[in-house]
Q: What sequence folds into this?
C-alpha cells in the first residue's frame, strides 16, 4: 500500500491535500450536472462489464463442498459432538427428548440457582435480578422458548470462549498470527450477520447446530482481542518472578500469564456472552425456535402486546447476563480466617445445591413450581394489544405520528434517497474518496477507492446506495438527538451517571429489540426502518459525547473559566474540540451499528442489500449471499478506517494519548 | 569447589538493545562511548562489565535509573541473554545452558525479589510463597510445610490465607522475600526491594533484611539507587553509570578514595565518619609497640569520635574483636575523616 501511496504522490506532482479534495469534488459535481447528457456507461456500469463475482464464489464453494468434501467434516462435527452438546442442554433446560433424558428441570430450580449465583456475585440486587428474571419468564408463559434460546447460548458461548482464548494466546505468542488474524477479525465484525447464517446452514445443517455455529463465530473476535490484550499487559515483574521460580513454558502460560490476565479475559467473556445472546435471537431468521423466533412471528402478525412481553424477557435476560458477567470481573477472592469450616467457606455452593434440590423436591408436589401451563400464565398480551392499539388510534397520537412520518418521508428521506440515486457511479465514488482523503488521509482514501469500486463491480450498486442512504440519514438524525442530549447530561455529575448507566444497559439489548418501539409507533414503513436505526444509534452517540466531555482535563476547563469564558464559549472553544476525538469513536460506532441494524430492518420491507440478503437465506445461493455481505462490510470498513484514522491523529495532535 | 572461587563471575559482559546487537558488537570499534553507541541506534544496557561475587558476600550495585543496574542483575540470572562476554555461576557458563538446565538452576540455586513485588494476584500468601516449590513439583504437604516456615521467618504468621491486595506494601514485600527464600537459594538477587516503600518502613525492612542475612549468610546481589542504603548494607559496592561500572569497592574505600568524579559527587554529601571503620585507617605497626588501650577495628570513626578528640596519643592501636593487634591508626588522619580536612 505504501508504494501505491508513493506513486500517487508522484503522479499528483505533490499537489496539496485541499487541492486534491477540491479537484475530486469538482469533477464529481461536473459529472452530476452533466448526467442528462452523459453516456450510459458513466452513469451506471453496464451489466456486461460486471464480473460474475457470485458465480466465481459459487465455484469456490462448490470446490470446497463437492471436491474437498469439507461438508463431510463440518457435518460430522455438527451431527456428532455439537449435536450431542446441544441435545444435552436442550434436554436439561427445555426437556427435549434427548440423552440424558432428565429434563426439563423445573423452572423454580433454575430460578433458585440463578438467585444464589446473583447473590454471590453482587449481593441482593443481583440475586433479585437473577431470580426475578426467571420467575418473570416462567410466569408470563415463555419458559420453553426462553430455554430454547439459552440452551443454544449455553453451548455457543463456551465454544466461542475456548476458540477465542486459544486464538488470543496464539496472536499474543506469534506476531505473524496476530498480523494475519487482525484484518480477518475486522471484516468478521463488519460483515452483516445474514452472511454468517447461510454458510452455517450449508456447512452445518439446518436447525440449532447452524444457529450455534453462526453464533459462535460471531462472538469469537472480541475474545481474541481481549485475550491478547490481557496477556500483553501482564506486568514484566510478574513474568520475571515466574521465570525465576523456574517455571517451564507451560507453567508460565497456565499459572502465571493466564491467571494474571484474569480481568481482560473476563471482560472478553462478558462480550462473548452478550454477542452470543444478540446473535441467538437473530437466528430466528433461519427458523430457529426460541425468543427471537417467537418475537419475529409476533411482530409479523402485529401482535404488539405479546411482542412487548417477549421484548421484556429478552431485555431481562440480557441485563442479567451482562450484570452477572461484569460482577464476575470485579469479584476478587477474599480470604477466610483459619479454621473456618468447609460449609461456611462454600456457603454459596451449599445454598445453590440446597435451593436446587429443595425446589426439585417441592415441585414434584406443587405442579405450578414445575411448569407454568398455558392457561396459568399471567401473560397480558391480548390486553396490552388492545391498549397499544387503542393508544395508537387516539386522534392526537395518530396526528403526531402521521405528521412525523409525512415530514420525514416527503421532505427528507425520499428526496435524499433520490438525490443519492441520481449521482452517477464514478461521481459517487469520487465523493466518497474525497471525504475519506479529507478526513482520514491517504491510506483511508486508497481503501475507499478500492472498496467502493468493488461495490460498483459487484452489480448491486443501487441497493448498496439505498443501504447507505438509510445509514446516513439515520446517523444524521440520531446526531440531532444524541449530541445535544449528551451535552446536556454532561453538565451535571448526577445526570451523566444516570444517562451513562442507561446507555450501558441499552447497549446490552440485542439489536432486534430496537425494532419494537419503531414498529409500535409507525407501523411498517420506510420511516420505521430509519427510526429503528435512529433509536439504536443514538445510544453510542450520547454515550461517547458524555464520555468525551467528561474526560476533558479539569485544568483546561479551569483555565477557560479563569480566562472569563462564558459557558457557551467554554463549550465551543475548549470542551468540544477536546472531546471530538472521543465523540468520533461514538460516531463511528453509530455508523457500524447502523449498518448492522439496516440489515435486520430488512424484514420490515426495504429495497436494499438486506432484503436481498434475507432472500438468499431461503435458498442455497452462497455466492450471492457473500457478495451482498461483502458489499455491506466494505462500505462499513471504509467509514471505520476513515473515522478511526482521523480520531487517532487528532488524539495524538492534542496529546491525549 | 573451594570456598574462594567466586559464585558469580562475569567478564567483559555486554548487553546491547537494538535491531541486531550481536553483529553490531562484533564490528564495533573499541572504546566506543555510550552516546556514540546510542547515535548508532543501540542502547548499551551493560557495557563491558567485569565483576566477581564471592561466597557469602553482599555486593550492592548502585546507580541512578537507566544506569543498567537492573539489566546487569537480569543478565546474572539470564532473564536477559547477554550480547557479549561470559557469565559463570558456580564455574558454569550460563549462556551455554539449555532451557532445562537454566530452569533447573533457577529452581535450585536462585531467588529474586522485585521492586514492585511481582506477586501473583490470584494466589494467597501461602500459595505465592509455595509457588517456586510447586514449579519444581514438590508434593503439596512438603511445600506447605516449607512455605509456612519461611512465612514465619519473615514475620507474616497468621496472614497465610490473605491475598496480596489485602496486605500493605511492606507486608507484600515480605511475601516477595519469603517466596525468594522458599527454595533455599544459594544466590539471592534483590532488585530495589525497598524502593517502593515508605521511608520508615524501608528502614525497618533493611533491619529485617540484615537480620535475615546474619542468619542465612547467602551470596547476595542487591540493587539500589539509594547511596545511603548501599553504604548501610554492602560488603562491596559497584557504582554504575551508563551501563558501565565506575568503581567497585568496599564502602570505606569508596568514601575515602572515590576514583571518578561521578563517584565523588555521590560521596560529597555523605558523612564519612559514619561509614569508615577503624580497620581501614589502621596502618602497619612500625617496630615500636603502641601503648595503651586499643580501639576496636569494627567501630566507625563516628563511634570513636569522643575518644579521638580526648585521647592524647598520636597513634592509636587497633585490635580486632579477638583482641589481636592489627595495626595503628593515626589520630590526625582519623580526625580528618571525622571533621573534614581543614
A:
Amino acid at each position: 500500500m505504501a508504494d501505491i501511496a508513493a506513486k500517487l504522490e508522484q503522479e499528483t506532482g505533490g499537489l496539496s491535500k485541499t487541492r486534491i479534495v477540491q479537484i475530486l469534488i469538482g469533477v464529481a459535481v461536473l459529472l452530476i450536472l452533466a448526467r442528462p447528457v452523459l453516456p450510459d456507461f458513466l452513469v451506471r456500469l453496464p451489466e456486461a462489464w460486471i464480473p460474475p463475482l457470485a458465480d466465481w464464489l459459487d465455484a469456490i464453494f462448490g470446490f470446497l463442498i463437492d471436491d474437498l468434501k469439507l461438508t463431510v467434516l463440518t457435518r460430522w462435527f455438527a451431527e456428532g459432538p455439537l449435536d450431542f452438546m446441544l441435545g444435552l442442554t436442550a434436554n436439561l433446560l427445555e426437556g427435549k427428548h434427548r440423552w440424558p433424558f432428565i429434563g426439563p428441570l423445573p423452572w423454580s430450580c433454575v430460578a433458585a440457582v440463578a438467585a444464589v449465583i446473583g447473590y454471590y456475585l453482587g449481593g441482593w440486587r443481583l440475586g433479585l435480578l437473577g431470580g426475578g428474571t426467571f420467575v418473570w419468564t416462567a410466569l408470563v408463559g415463555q419458559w420453553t422458548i426462553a430455554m430454547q434460546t439459552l440452551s443454544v447460548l449455553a453451548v455457543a458461548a463456551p465454544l466461542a470462549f475456548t476458540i477465542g482464548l486459544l486464538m488470543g494466546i496464539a496472536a499474543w505468542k506469534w506476531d505473524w498470527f496476530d498480523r494475519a488474524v487482525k484484518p480477518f477479525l475486522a471484516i468478521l465484525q463488519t460483515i452483516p450477520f445474514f452472511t454468517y447464517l447461510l454458510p452455517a446452514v450449508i456447512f452445518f445443517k439446518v436447525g440449532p447446530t447452524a444457529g450455534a455455529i453462526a453464533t459462535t463465530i460471531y462472538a469469537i473476535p472480541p475474545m481474541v482481542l481481549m485475550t491478547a490484550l490481557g496477556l500483553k499487559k501482564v506486568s514484566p515483574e510478574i513474568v520475571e518472578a515466574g521465570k525465576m521460580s523456574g517455571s517451564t513454558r507451560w507453567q508460565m502460560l497456565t499459572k502465571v500469564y493466564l491467571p494474571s490476565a484474569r480481568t481482560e479475559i473476563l471482560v472478553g467473556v462478558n462480550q462473548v456472552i452478550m454477542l452470543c445472546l444478540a446473535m441467538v435471537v437473530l437466528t430466528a431468521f433461519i427458523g430457529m425456535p426460541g425468543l427471537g423466533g417467537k418475537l419475529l412471528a409476533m411482530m409479523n402478525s402485529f401482535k404488539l402486546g405479546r411482542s412487548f412481553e417477549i421484548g421484556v424477557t429478552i431485555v431481562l435476560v440480557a441485563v442479567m447476563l451482562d450484570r452477572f458477567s461484569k460482577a464476575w470481573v470485579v469479584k476478587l477472592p477474599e480470604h477466610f480466617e483459619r479454621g473456618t469450616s468447609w460449609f461456611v467457606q462454600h456457603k454459596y455452593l451449599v445454598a445453590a445445591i440446597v435451593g436446587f434440590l429443595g425446589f426439585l423436591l417441592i415441585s414434584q408436589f406443587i405442579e405450578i413450581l414445575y411448569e407454568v401451563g398455558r392457561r396459568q400464565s399471567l401473560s397480558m398480551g391480548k390486553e396490552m394489544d388492545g391498549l397499544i392499539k387503542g393508544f395508537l388510534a387516539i386522534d392526537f397520537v395518530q396526528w403526531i405520528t402521521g405528521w412525523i412520518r409525512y415530514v420525514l418521508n416527503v421532505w427528507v428521506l425520499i428526496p435524499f434517497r433520490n438525490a443519492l440515486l441520481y449521482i452517477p457511479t464514478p461521481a459517487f465514488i469520487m465523493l466518497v474518496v474525497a471525504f475519506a482523503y479529507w478526513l482520514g488521509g491517504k491510506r483511508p482514501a486508497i481503501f475507499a477507492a478500492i472498496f467502493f469500486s468493488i461495490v460498483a463491480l459487484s452489480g448491486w450498486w443501487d441497493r448498496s446506495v439505498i443501504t447507505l442512504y438509510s445509514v446516513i440519514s439515520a446517523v444524521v438524525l440520531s446526531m440531532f438527538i444524541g449530541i445535544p442530549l449528551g451535552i446536556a447530561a454532561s453538565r451535571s455529575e448526577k445526570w451523566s451517571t444516570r444517562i451513562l448507566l442507561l446507555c450501558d444497559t441499552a447497549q446490552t439489548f440485542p439489536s432486534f429489540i430496537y425494532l419494537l418501539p419503531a414498529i409500535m409507533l409507525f407501523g411498517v414503513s420506510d420511516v420505521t426502518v430509519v427510526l429503528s436505526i435512529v433509536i439504536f444509534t443514538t445510544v453510542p452517540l450520547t454515550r461517547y459525547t458524555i464520555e468525551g466531555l467528561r474526560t476533558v482535563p479539569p485544568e483546561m476547563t479551569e483555565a477557560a473559566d479563569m480566562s472569563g469564558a462564558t459557558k457557551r464559549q467554554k463549550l465551543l472553544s475548549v470542551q468540544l474540540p477536546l472531546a471530538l476525538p472521543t465523540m468520533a469513536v461514538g460516531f463511528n460506532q453509530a455508523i457500524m451499528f447502523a449498518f448492522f441494524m439496516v440489515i435486520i430492518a430488512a424484514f420490515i420491507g426495504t429495497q436494499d442489500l438486506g432484503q436481498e440478503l434475507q432472500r438468499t437465506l431461503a435458498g442455497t445461493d452462497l455466492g450471492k449471499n457473500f457478495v451482498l455481505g461483502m458489499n455491506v462490510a466494505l462500505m462499513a470498513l471504509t467509514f471505520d478506517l476513515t473515522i478511526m484514522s482521523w480520531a487517532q491523529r487528532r488524539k495524538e495532535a492534542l496529546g491525549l494519548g | 569447589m573451594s570456598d574462594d572461587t567466586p559464585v558469580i563471575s562475569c567478564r567483559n559482559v555486554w548487553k546491547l538493545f537494538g535491531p541486531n546487537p550481536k553483529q553490531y558488537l562484533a564490528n564495533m570499534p573499541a572504546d566506543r562511548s555510550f552516546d556514540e553507541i546510542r547515535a548508532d541506534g543501540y542502547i548499551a544496557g551493560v557495557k563491558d562489565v567485569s565483576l566477581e561475587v564471592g561466597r557469602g558476600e553482599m555486593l550492592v550495585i548502585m546507580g541512578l535509573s537507566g544506569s543498567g543496574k537492573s539489566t546487569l542483575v537480569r543478565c546474572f540470572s539470564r532473564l536477559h541473554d547477554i550480547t557479549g562476554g561470559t557469565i559463570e555461576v558456580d564455574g558454569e557458563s550460563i549462556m551455554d545452558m539449555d532451557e532445562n538446565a537454566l530452569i533447573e538452576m533457577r529452581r535450585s540455586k536462585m531467588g529474586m525479589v522485585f521492586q514492585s513485588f511481582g506477586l501473583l494476584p490470584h494466589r494467597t500468601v501461602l500459595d505465592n510463597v509455595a509457588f517456586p516449590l510447586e514449579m519444581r513439583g514438590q508434593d503439596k504437604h512438603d511445600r506447605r510445610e516449607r512455605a509456612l516456615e519461611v512465612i514465619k521467618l519473615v514475620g507474616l504468621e497468621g496472614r497465610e490465607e490473605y491475598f496480596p491486595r489485602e496486605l500493605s506494601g511492606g507486608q507484600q514485600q515480605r511475601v516477595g522475600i519469603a517466596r525468594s527464600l522458599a527454595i533455599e537459594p544459594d544466590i539471592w538477587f534483590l532488585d530495589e526491594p525497598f524502593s517502593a516503600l515508605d521511608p520508615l518502613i524501608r528502614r525497618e525492612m533493611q533491619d529485617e533484611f540484615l537480620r535475615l542475612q546474619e542468619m542465612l549468610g547467602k551470596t547476595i546481589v542487591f540493587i539500589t539507587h539509594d547511596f545511603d542504603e548501599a553504604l548501610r548494607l554492602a560488603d562491596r559496592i559497584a557504582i554504575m553509570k551508563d551501563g558501565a561500572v565506575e568503581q567497585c569497592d568496599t564502602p570505606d574505600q569508596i568514601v575515602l578514595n572515590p576514583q571518578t568524579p561521578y563517584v565523588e559527587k555521590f560521596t560529597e554529601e555523605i558523612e564519612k565518619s559514619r561509614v569508615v571503620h577503624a580497620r581501614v585507617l589502621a596502618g602497619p605497626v612500625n617496630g615500636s609497640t603502641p601503648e595503651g588501650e586499643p580501639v576496636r577495628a569494627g567501630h566507625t570513626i563516628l563511634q570513636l569520635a569522643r575518644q579521638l578528640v580526648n585521647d592524647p596519643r598520636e597513634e592509636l592501636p587497633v585490635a580486632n574483636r579477638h583482641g589481636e593487634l592489627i595495626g595503628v591508626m593515626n589520630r590526625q588522619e582519623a580526625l580528618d575523616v571525622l571533621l573534614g580536612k581543614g
Notes: Chain B touches chain A at residues 74, 77, 79, 103-104, 106-108, 110-112, 114-124, 131-132, 134-136, 158, 160-163, 165-166, 176, 179-180, 183, 189 (CB under 8 Å).
